[in-house]
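Report of the visiting student (M.T.), summer placement. My assignment was to run the structure pipeline on a short list of targets and document each run. The first record concerns Pantetheinase-like.
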Amino acid sequence: SNTFIAAVYEHAVILPDTADEPVSPDDALALMNSNMDVLEGAIKEAAQQGAHIIVTPEDGIYGWRFTRETIYPYLEDIPDPAVNWIPCTDPTRFAPAPVQERLSCMARNNSIYVVANIGDKKPCNSSDPSCPEDGRYQYNTDVVFDPEGKLVARYHKYNLFIPETQFNYPKEPEAITFETPFGKFGVFTCFDILFHEPAVVLVSELQVDTVLFPTAWMNVLPFLTAVEFHSAWAMGMGVNFLAANTHHTSVSMTGSGIYAPDGARAYYYNMKTEDGRLLVAELDSHPRLSATFPPAVNWSSYALSVERFSPNDNDFGGLVFHDWFTFTELAKPEGNRTVCQKDLCCHLSYKMAEKREDEVYVLGAFDGLHVVEGQYYLQICTLLKCKSTDLNTCGQPVETAQTKFEMFSLSGTFGTNYVFPEVLYSGVQLAPGEFKVLSDGRLISKTRPTKPVVTVTLFGRWYEKDHLKQDPQLPAFS
Ligand SMILES: NC(=O)CCCC[C@@H]1SC[C@@H]2NC(=O)N[C@@H]21
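After the run finished, the structure tokens were exported:
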């Protein structure tokens, strides 16, 4: 088919009690069944609305706050999908697997692909020198059941986030894909999105059409809020992206969406209540063949072709999520500005509807290794609103703004081809259809932005540089 209906469910996970001791297998299953009761309602509703596939969140069935020992009763042995297993119709073929059986039946009874995140356990012994002392590997695992209830994909998360000490890293990254009548799918989990393997491999080498993305994502403004970054990754990589987040506002977890390469089809961000939400939207099965598929981009073409727009007399520094940026203030209501850090020069042309006295915007550049909660090399050009009119607050998280822009055009001399374009309006709102990337690398407003701007960002990832030693992040202007 040319199109299909996708669903994602943001789930307010029912968490286990914080206990230091492992619970019984029955208690673990009871907690997981409470969560699956809610997921089953969402799956039924999605199927009734015609969805062909539904994605549910990372940690959506057992929650978090586990040690290696306390998660054990929640784990099941998940076989390689090559065994051709329908747990719903053949539940006793392997060791008891009540969670896989129930997920399989939900898929089968509703004739829909179901994507879920559960825990896998694999026994090992001393013949394996890497075998953990407790005699088992434990993996954060995505599973996919087809509309017959057959297990068609199993993915072990490769880039564990720092607190996930309950799980092991798989020895090698797994690039997991499967074919459907509506395109080729790939799957990875949460923190994986910031790294080359397996995320970029799935798109650039294996040419998937749609990525399935269970996540438990804590939002970090100004660049790493879920809806902002996940929609930007879909656009930068040219794929559909189905992101299902957990919903838990006390740790800033919210933000799910159905994203196409040219913008969001549906998204949900809600820090006000603890409600989950089902999203359903239509997508192209093969976005690369669609008339709206964005053109190939040379990310540095425009920026390398122009001279510096402005002198660097008044540049200053500031921290953005632990990274030392070089900033220049946008003091006039319109203009052309350049700011550089190391090899990255960022150019901005902009026009504000009016220059407000109570809001300050800057153009910023960062070219360096990010080292907090993981190590990854970034090149970032950004137009952002400062928290207050004090320039020392530039880079601190900001959610709202009042300044409307007539236009913006942002570009940079990137050394990487992997650049993710973000536009965030006041109130953590996306701007689908209101901006685009030209083939020469400029991120431009298509029409006059309809809402006040919080950030416009080109978020570049330079994967080859991830293993460099950290540069001392000193102000380049001092
Ligand atoms: N479950 C996960 O793997 C969560 C990782 C995503 C966290 C994103 S990426 C780095 C930022 N730090 C955060 O606390 N949230 C952001």
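The chain has a mean pLDDT of 96. Residues 58, 161, 190-191, 194, 216-218, 220, 224, 373 surround LRUESNKD (CB under 6 Å). I thank the supervising group for their guidance throughout the placement.
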